[in-house]
Amino acid sequence: MAVSVQSVITIEAGIPEIMEVMADVRSLVDWSDAHRAVEVREEDADGWPIVVWEKISQYGVTDEMVVRYEWYDGEVSWSLIESGSQKLQNARYRLTDNGDGTTEVIFDLEVDLKIKLPGMVVKKAQKSIADTATKGLRTEVLRRYG
Question: Residues in domain Coenzyme Q-binding protein COQ10 START (predicted)?
């Protein structure tokens, strides 16, 4: 059964700076506790990552997955191509300029696992992922541009 989570945060930076951090997928190993390794397998003509292999480990589950990114003005999404422990993963960041030098960031994630985990573990993992995707992103953006 697929589970989903949404998280919202305001980041004291502009959309271009936030998009640049998100496009630097190799740096996920530095600011996401779950990411152990990242390899860009395909980029578009402008150098934006399109197909990315990731090794993640969280709550006793280690997985290697390949995701496909789609980049838009103020938005990025990715979907699962292959994974050892997931049937489905769809994620999206939507960025909105607040007009005051800050940006509202909305993160949505939907995951369906091949393996069964206790509900409590799934809830903890969801919170951890949402926190990393928003608070972790904010910390990295401010570290680079704050």
Answer: 13-135
